[in-house]
Structure formats: C-alpha cells, structure tokens
Amino acid sequence: MDNSAYRFVFALLGLAAPAIASPEFDTLVTPFLEEHCYKCHGEKKQKGDIRLDTLSRDFTHGENAILWKDVSDMLITGDMPPEDEPRPPVDAVTNLTRAIDSELRAAAESLRDGGRIAIRRLSHTALDNTVRDLLGINLQLSKNLPADPDLEGFNSLAITLDANPEMVLKLQDNANAIARRAIASGPDVRSEHRYTIGTIGHGYNVEERDGHVITSSSRDRKHVMWPQDFVAPQDGVYRIQVNGFARDLRTDLENQGIEYTYVRESYENSLKKRKRKPNDVPRLVSIVAIQASEARHMDAATVPGRRVGYFYLGNESDSQTVDVRLYEGENFMVHYAAAGALNQSPIATVNGEERLVSDLLHVKAIHVSGPEIDAWPPPARQQLLGAGPNDATDARSRIDAFLERAFRRPVPEQTQNAFQRLYTTGLEQGLSPEASMRNVVEGVLTSPRFLFNYDQGDGSDAWALANRLSYFLWNTMPDDTLRTLAASGELLDPQVLRQQAIRLLEDEKSARFVQDFTAQWLGLKDIELMRPDPKLYEDYDPLLESLMRQESEAFFAHVLRENLPTRSFLDSDFVLVNERLASHYNIDGVQGDTIRPVPLPAESRRGGLLGQASILKLTSNGTRTSPVVRGVWILENLLGDPPSPPPADVMPIEPDVRGSKTIFDMLARHREVETCADCHRSIDPWGFGLEHFDAIGAYREVYRNGQPVYAKGSVPGGEFDGIVDMKEVLLGRSSQFNRALTEKLFTYALGHPLTVAEQIVADDIAAANSEGPGGFKDLVVAICSSPLFRGVPQPENLASR
C-alpha cells in the first residue's frame, strides 16, 4: 500500500453520513471552477489525475474532503492556477477558500472521533528507551528486528507498526538475553581498564617509540592496534578513551631540515611528494568492533568488523572519548582512518635508524569502561528481589508494582495472578528466585501490554494521556510524577497537563524527542545512505556525517529550548557548530569540539535548516546534487505540499559524473514533457535555489566543469537567485510552514496521519501561534494541552470559527 493509499484509508476512518454542501456553496464555487480550473482539470484534461467538474460536494466523504482541502491550499499559496494562466481576483479566491473551509468544518463535526487507532506498537527507539528506563540497563530489545516501516517519513505510526511472527521470535530471544542481564548478582560486571605499551596489542607494522604505539593509516590488519585480552562481558554501551596525537612526521622532518630515505623505492619516488594535510588539521580515528578472537596480527587482511565510533585527534597530546555499543565476546581495534591508505609500511631511514615516516597516529593509552548499568546489582534486580543475595521477600507486591510500571497503567488482577504464577511455578520446579524472576521479566518484555500502547482516544483515560504525553516528548514510559497524576486523575486538568508538558520539555530526556522527531520529520535517520564519492569529496568522513546530524538536532533543540519563533527554521542569524563544522562552512573563529550557537553576519547563506549540511547531503546522491529531490523535500517537509508521484513510464536522469552538462540542462527534458511539466514547474525552482551548495553542503560558485551555478527560480510569491533570496520567499510563507510543522508534530504525537477534521484543528493552533507572540516551545505546549491531543470534544463548534 503506497502513501496516498494510507492517507486515503485514514480519511475514510472519519466517514459519516453523507452531507452535501449547501446550495450557496455550489452557486459560489461552480462559476469560479468553470473560469479558472476546468481547462486543466475538467472533462477533456485531468492534469495530475485531478478532475474537478465531477468532484462531489459531499465533504464527509474522506477522499472528497482531501481533494477540496488541496484545492483550497493551492489557491491560498498561489500554486494554482499556473503562472501562465490569468490570476483570479483576490476577493474571489478569498471567498472561495473561506467557503471550502466552512464546509470542511461543518463536515468535521461528525468526524470528531474518527481516525484514532486504539492500539499502537512501540517503535524500535521507544522499545529500547523503555527498556532502559524500566530496567536501568542499556540493552536493545530491538536488536536484529525487522526495520519499522516508513510512511510519509514517519516510522512510528500505528497503521504501519505490527508484531509479525518473525519479529515475535526475535523479540523472545532478545527479551531472554535482557532478563538474564537485568536480574543478576555476584561480582559487578562493570569494570575499567587502562592499556599502554606492553598491553596494547598491534599488527607487525606498528611500532613502539617514546612511550607511544605508532601506526600509519592503512586498510590492512598489520597497521591497527587493540586493547590486549579485552573481552566485552555482555552486550552494552562501553566508553572508550584514547590518549594521543596525530601529525605528519614528513612535514616535521622537512621543517627541521632532517633528511629521510624510504626503504621502498616506490615510496621514495611517490610518498615524499604525495599530497598531505597540514599538521594543524585534526585527523580521523575510528573504533572497529571485532570478535575478541580476531584481535591478533594477520598478514594482508583487511580491517574487519563494525565501525562503531569515530573521533578526531589533533597534533598535540589529548584525550578523546567515544561511547560505543559492543556485543558480548567482542573486542575492538583502533584504526587510523584519516590518512591515505598505504599498501605497505612507510619505513624510512632517519639518522641511520629505520622508523615509520608518514602521517602517523601516536597512542599513549587506551581506557575502556563499561558496560553502562545504573547500579549493581542492576536496578531491576533490586526492585524485584532486593539488593541482598537471598532477599526474595514480598515478591508479590514487588511484581505487581513492576507490572504497573512496565504496562504503564493499572493491571487487571487476572494478569497480576498470571505473572505471580509464572514466578512461583519456577520456584516449585527448583529454579532460584533470580531464575524465576527472569521468567517474569522475559514475560513482561514480550507481553502485548508492554509492546503496545492501548489508546482509545478517550478523554477520560488519564493513563492513556500520560502515555501519549510521555511518548511524545520523551519517547519513553511515564515517570513517577506522571503516573501519580494519572492515578489521581489530575492529569486530565488542562492546566496540569500544560505544566507537565513544560516539565517534560525542560528535562534532559526531551533529547529523545529531538532525536526521534528530527530523524523522521527531517529524514535524519537516512543520513548514512548514499555515501559521497571519496574521490569527489575528499574532506568528507563518517564523523563529519555524524556532526551534520548533531548540528540539526542541536539547532532544533535550541529553537525549542529558547522558545524562538518557528520561522527560525526557515532562516536564522545563528548556526550551531563546532570547529569541524565551522571549517566545513568557512566560518572563522570557532574552536573546540562542542557544538554551540555562533552568530552569523547579515545576508549569510547558512541560517535555518536549508543551510545545514545534513539536509543538503540527504537531498543529494553520492556524486552530485539533485534539484528535484531537494525541491520535493522542501515541498513535503517545509510547506506541507507534497507533489504527486512521477508517472511510472518516466525514466530517472542518469548521473553525469563527467560534468558535460549542467543540472539545469539535464532537467530541461522534464520541463518539455507535458505530463512532467506541471509538477516540475512547482518542484524544480525550490531545488535550484539550493544549487550553490554541493552534495555535502559546501558552498560553490561553479560546477566541477567550470560552468557557473544556476540557482534561479520563480514560484508563487516571488522570484529568487540563490538561497538568500529564496529564504525571503519562504519567510513570506511562514504561516504555511507553521501549518505543515504543526501537522507533522500532531502526526508524530498521535501516531497516525491526520484526518481532515484533525487537520483543521491543527491548522487553527498553527494560525494562533503564527499570529501571536508565541515561539516553538509554546506551539508544542499548545499541542499537548489541545482538546485534540487530550481526546476530548472541542470546546466550541468548529464550523463557527
């Protein structure tokens, strides 16, 4: 089922008895459509497969309501009629859009309770967060599960989240492993280890000198190092700290006038002359997870394993820390990923002594700690069996309390008894209290009451509201405060709910909302797809890619925390960058690894989302930019006006890496084909406005072939030449952006695409925010305290607004 079909299904969920529009509406709309619309959307021609002359006036029918709302939206934004057609008088457009809005609101009265799905599985990220907060241990219930399906950018919607047999089997395996780690005692598995010369294992082409283990960059195992005899005792998050520095010894020797001669003649002729980085440029180091048995020297073997972490080291001794996820039985390798890969060791004679001479990584120490567990014995073990070795008293009350936290609402007595029997049966069969309690935890983690949130949308269900709020703003289970307010019913008070929304936003766990919502709304979850060609983009590396995502998340969090106007997403006089990102953007005066607000000069190209490398990289492929993809991204994510999918018989443009054509020339054929021209007329200009940014977000004035960048566009509301002008046009549509953003937030919060009736409510909240002094945080709080979010009838008739 494609996205449009899902959208149609959700519209149908709000069906009511037919209610034909009033005769006054027909008298107003028919002459307007005949004069301005039927030429392209009538009996003889149906551009975009839309026909308006036969469009039913029954606004309670889901498909009809969607089409009428699309008509109204396109008239408001000026996207229709096309620019080459006569423009209707402003008064006529205003009267028609108001009439459509009035009919939609009247129909929405009967759709008020439609659309909500009563059962919604937790997404992978929500599952893992809930396990983390319930058990106090950072393990993944989502490990190796099938990916959550995506719908219109969202992978957390009820209609796409199920629990198929394949998923259930893997869930059982994961739950069993987590239960064994959560209910444990004995010696603390958490540990800290420090490795130096003598305990840092390494390949044969690594040398030890002056208290450091030294290696050059290479793709094979002879050039890596690892903590000797380290084995991860269990799955979890481990903290790795590397102390050292990285610099090019060739440059140092040459600056000091010291001669050196490579042992290999080919290196003598090439490596001395090879392009090198200045020593003041930080170098990339990667952490590669491997099986502990693989932590040994091997001849001519590529570096195996999973790359789980990255950091930069500068040219002076420093410590860098990275948190990585390791699995039981794994070790890790430290790989110098920054310099050019060498097939052989760069050994040269210096002052009569053979040594490595190249771009080198010097490691003095490796420190490893973990796994990350809140306490020992683990919190779940202490909650269910106490901290002592044989403290299994009062198990019944402890299990009941655990069930209420895990299932996030009062638990029926029948369910409580079932889990009590699971525990006592284990004891009767000779299992220890710990082993019996592991059965309980495993059963909880695989129970539908844990995996799903049950939400009828009933405004009197305070527990459902507590879950809705917590999974919206924290992406995890409610805390003690929310549960207490749900138990007393106080959370149903809109003022109390508003206060709790503010509290949750000010808590550090709101970072999960930032990460999860931006992953879906902006598409940041796909940042690792379509890696840029390293031959074309030499400065691109995996850590820069990670920093791109972190920048966008930090920007979103800053606008939220500081309650800035939502138009800040369209343009801002600041960016959030660290030294590496600032260098990528050619912004001077920024030092250090911390991402922080940095002011921009007037007329800067970087302010807002569209100047951020994450968005620009996401909307490109590995070799070039794509104005079509970028234009679609703007329409879908910023303006809430997704174009129709392309006809099935239209072939995609083949990448032209030779640079013999400009992107503008390559897209010209689409604009010449009638079936393509209408959509590309609205898509392409937005994409061309970003053409001054290449596929990794760096600014350019010319293409690789030397031709000047084409960045002009014309859309309803203005013309532009480049990003600065285009952002001014977008700011003129800030109300449209606010509506789109609000609908995205509601979709994420409620877990389903909005019905037309719900869109009307969301649009009213967006309009109030746009017209008032409120900021982005005010908008989120208004969503949380709205009748739509609370699941209660509107306080006043929608049709009267």
Structural class, please?
A: alpha+beta
Helix content: 40-55%
Model regions low in confidence, pLDDT < 50 over at least 5 residues: 1-18, 654-660
The gyration radius over C-alpha positions equals: 30 Å
Secondary structure: number of strands: 20
**What's the rounded overall pLDDT mean?**
88
The largest sheet, given as strand count, sense and whether it forms a barrel, is: 6 strands, antiparallel
Q: Helical segment tally? A: 29
- Cα shape: flat
State the distance separating the first and last CA atoms.
36 Å
Q: Strand-residue fraction?
A: 5-15%
Q: Short summary of the structure?
A:
It contains 29 helices and 20 strands.
How does this model look, in words?
The chain has 801 residues and is of the alpha+beta class. The chain contains 29 helices and 20 strands. Strands 2, 4, 5, 7, 11 and 15 form a 6-stranded antiparallel beta sheet that branches. Strands 8-13-14 form a 3-stranded antiparallel beta sheet. Strands 10-9-12 form a 3-stranded antiparallel beta sheet, with no helix packed on it. Helix 15 (462-473) packs antiparallel against helix 16. The longest helix has 20 residues, at 542-561. The radius of gyration is 30 Å and the shape is flat. The model is unreliable at 1-18 and 654-660 (pLDDT under 50).
Task: Explain the layout of strands and helices.
Layout (H helix, E strand, L loop, with lengths): L2 H10 L10 H14 L1 H4 L20 H16 L12 H19 L10 E3 L2 H12 L29 H18 L8 E5 L4 E3 L4 E3 L2 E5 L8 E3 L8 E13 H7 L4 E3 L2 H6 L12 E9 L14 E8 L4 E9 L3 E7 L10 E4 L2 E4 L2 E12 L8 H7 L9 H13 L5 H16 L4 H13 L2 H4 E3 L7 H12 L6 H9 L5 H13 L3 H12 L20 H20 L12 E4 L1 H7 L10 E4 L13 H6 L8 H12 L24 H10 L1 H15 L23 E4 L2 E4 L1 H9 L2 H17 L5 H16 L4 H9 L2 H4 L11
Antiparallel strand pairs: 1-16, 2-15, 3-6, 4-5, 5-15, 7-11, 7-15, 8-13, 9-10, 9-12, 13-14, 17-18, 19-20
